[in-house]
Design a protein that fits this description.
By secondary structure, the protein is mostly helical. It is built from nine helices and three strands. A three-stranded mixed beta sheet has the order 1-2-3. Helix 2 (39-65) packs parallel to helix 7 (188-215).
Length: 316
């Protein structure tokens, strides 16, 4: 498994920096929410506060996920990354459910009043701050191919949109108050809270589903499989292989693959080792973190007795 040390250190610095920013936004958000008596603002603040605790944990998870295999985890620690993301997603879904239930109860009991002017000041600052942090995270996540940074970026864009909704609710309430409709204004905050709880749940469920798939060693996205096939097709033509079969899964940033290559004729071990090294170097150009086994064979019949081979598998 290839490890880019410089990228890892930069990733850790980004995670630590966003932890501080997120914690400050969370504390200030909760304080202003109580002062303004706004549940939508409380959702915004709690989202940031809980997120900061998980970002703090992300740096430890990153160190664990990139550890080399040992006697305890003989296939490496890559699964810790999707496992952590799954736990984090469940926690955020739980928080959304609690705050959504509270807003729903308030909606059917006459709503509530909030201090719009006070809330608009903090919410405006929150939108700008969250958008800047999201941009930094998203840009670096794409450069490094980091699942943790992508997860953080998704959380920050959700937080940005949530702050936009809170600001919108305050603006609508201020307009309704000035136009003589205070009774309608009381329902705006719980309505906005419920709407955003619902909208935030969809990407969170998707993130949870993807993490569970990775933990269950499901096949990676089709784009990953197609790219791996393209590499193998290239060497199949170059060395005139009879066929090949590729099995792969993805855990966090680590691509796990077992490749069976069937030869038309016998070759010396030294020649096969050279080809194996060449293919693995090519794979590592596309994925920095890989754990690949390449097996050469002439007779595919032995696969019937293998745990991963069966008669239904189609060789390419």
């Amino acid at each position: 498994m290839a490890v880019d040390f410089m990228n890892n250190q930069k990733e850790l610095r980004i995670l630590r920096g966003t932890t501080i920013v997120c914690f400050l936004f969370g504390v200030l958000g909760v304080m202003f929410a109580f002062m303004a008596d706004s549940k939508s603002m409380l959702l915004d603040g709690m989202y940031s506060f809980i997120q900061s605790l998980f970002i703090l944990s992300s740096s430890f998870v990153l160190k664990i996920a990139l550890k080399k295999d040992d006697e305890k985890y003989q296939f490496g620690y890559g699964a810790f990354e999707p496992f952590f993301i799954a736990l984090r997603t469940v926690a955020l879904l739980t928080m959304n459910f609690i705050l959504g239930s509270s807003a729903l109860t308030a909606l059917f009991s006459g709503g509530y009043r909030t201090e719009a002017n006070l809330g608009m000041i903090f919410t405006g600052l929150s939108i700008v701050g969250c958008a800047i942090v999201w941009k930094i995270l998203y840009t670096n996540a794409r450069k490094m191919g980091s699942p943790l940074l992508f997860a953080e970026a998704r959380s920050w864009i959700n937080d940005t949109l949530l702050s936009v909704a809170v600001l919108l609710s305050f603006a609508i309430m201020a307009i309704l108050d000035r136009t003589g409709h205070p009774e309608i204004a009381a329902y705006i905050d719980p309505l906005i809270t419920i709407a955003f709880v619902i909208s935030l749940c969809f990407p969170l469920f998707k993130m949870l589903f993807n993490s569970i798939r990775e933990l269950l060693s499901a096949a990676p996205p089709e784009s990953v499989q197609e790219e791996l096939d393209a590499i193998l097709e290239k060497y199949k033509s170059k060395y005139d292989f009879k066929s090949y079969m590729a099995y792969s899964s993805k855990q966090g940033r680590v691509l796990l693959s077992t490749i069976h290559i069937f030869l038309k004729r016998e070759e010396k071990i030294a020649v096969l080792d050279k080809i194996r090294k060449e293919i693995m170097k090519e794979i590592q150009k596309s994925w920095t973190y890989v754990d690949t086994d390449i097996v050469f064979s002439i007779d595919p019949e032995w696969l019937k007795y293998s745990a991963i081979g069966d008669d239904s598998t189609i060789a390419r």
